[in-house]
Fold:
Amino acid sequence: MNKKAKAPLIHITKRKELPWYSAWGIRFVGILLAFVLCAIVTMMLTGLNPIQVYGTMLYGAFGTQRKCWIMGQEVAILLCVALALTPAFRMRFWNLGGEGQILVGGLASAACMILIGDKIPNAALIAIMLVCSVAAGAVWAMIPALCKAKWNTNETLFTLMMNYVGMQLVAYFTIVWEVPKGSGKIGIINQNTSAGWLPQVGPSKYFLNILIVAVLTVAVYIYMNYSKQGYEISVVGESENTARYVGIKVGKVIVRTLIVSGALCGLAGFLLVGGTNHTITTTIANGRGFTAVMVAWLAKFNPIAMIFSSLLLVFFGQGASEISTAFGLNQSFGDILTGIVLFFIIGSEFFITYRMNFRKGE
Amino acid sequence: MFDIVGFIPRAVAQSIPLLYGSTGETITEKCGNLNLGIPGVMYVGAISGVIGAFLYERSTETMHAVPAILIPLGACLLGSLLMGLLYCFLTVTLRANQNVTGLALTTFGVGFGNFFGGSLIKLTGSEVPSIALSGTSGFFSKSLPIADKMGWAGTVFFSYGFLAYFAIVVALISSYVLTHTRTGLQLRAVGENPATADAAGINITRYKYVTTCIGCMIAGLGGLFYVMDYASGVWSNDAFGDRGWLAIALVIFTIWRPHISIFASILFGGLYILYLYIPAGMNLSVKELYKMLPYIVTIVVLVISSMRNKRENQPPASLGLNYFREDR
Structure:
């Protein structure tokens, strides 16, 4: 019988703040390991060697000029949603309702295009679409925020439910406005007149979207780091009691921040409907509301770092889609690879926050 | 005329996956883990069962009841267990953010399900047009022989496969364990205040691991029931839909009580298919609005329970937070 109490084999302690280069070094190792595992999984399913795997993926993402633009557009929209969620997350408000906020934003745009599409000049129409989308997204996020501020309702679950209410709302209007009747979809709106389509600026029809999101990235960065409101958000996120003590009205900050968050999600919906797809379906958000949560979190809510994290996730999506097309596999292959990458990055955070102290020999 | 005898069995068939999912998620949340990966886990449970059954059906000419049930069941439990272990390893051992981990798990799980559902035939080099496991499904959906003889009572109460009854049993057991046993008390202590529970000598890590893994296995069975019983063994991608999220909604709706979930899930199942019974004339669009009902009802319950602020109706206090002993 060994009565002597043993120290545990591994003793975990919290680290002091790591210098940024070690933190990013650890994340980089995590991503590298994920790349290796992804290559192995792909090899097992397709028989390609690892160089071919990433060759195919790179081709799928950047192979042609058209693919590059699609890639840029995908990154821009995902980044836009991640930027939208950032203020809420900094406040420790888990806005998982991005999906629904994008959908209602897109729905508002589509509604304007269908109802007043040919009656007013295009510039005015686009302005009205923008305002309506932003307002719709803001309202969708404001409802849970009001309840959170007033009764401390659990926001994670509330915003999650709002997604499906939004989705069914879109499904409803899809049938109301379906063209042709009985097809169950709206199809391209204003195909002949292009009313409400965002104008082509620069070399590609996606360029305007990318430009808008680039400006937005800088704006959110400034808002979060150099404005009074951004500071208030951080204080509320760190400690509500401290915020109350220094005289910040916590409820007001919660509602205001969520209006910003929802409005930017609505903007993403506007860009999707007005700029990219010119139609609305229940799947137009395509899980971005959830993927963006991970994009924002991977970047530690830093808008500039989010460019890279969204690039990484979109790269895996597009690349895996190329592999699955080439080998006749299912398109969901990308989700598996994305999942693997996420697990590794999520796991690597542990080694940034904590230190493992192994038991010394006897 | 509203066909109530026809309506109830369909509502119940809809409700069973939700009941499994919500029972699994309830006990998981009771230990303080908000597992948003449940939709993914249910997909993985379903596809694991399908893979098991598919391989068995291909390997043998004459199917026997025992392996035809045990192989998919075992595969399903194993698949969901692995998902549960992955979630626990990341959130409990590595203390990763639960929301992010859960969403990643859902992305992975739904992708895993759809990928193997869509590619299984190609990967195994079979010559069948689609995955239709009617043989296995026959064993799973076999109802009691007395169902036919008892008229409407037989249809309403006895016309389901064994997994449906098992779901109710699991919910009752979970409810009993949570409220009437020492294990349940300690489990709730872990979810409410892990630091206190730790000081009382409860092994937090073990409780969280075991509970979350069992929760995932229960939820996985919901996916298995859906494919094998409800969908008659036919896998089609994305057919399972948003039922996983509805199961999470159900957890809130029942204010974390599995035995209420038995009736609540039938209510949700009814709401889910109510649109089929609405005499809306030719107007199909209204049906889409009816599909909103379960979510709206959940939101209303969530808001009202937070307004009334009764202590016994609140989410577990440390829900979504990871425990690190050396934290302040």
Observations:
- The first helix of chain B runs from residue 4 to 30.
- The CA atoms of residues 272 and 291 of chain B lie 6 Å apart.
- Chain B touches chain A through 57 residues (CB under 8 Å).
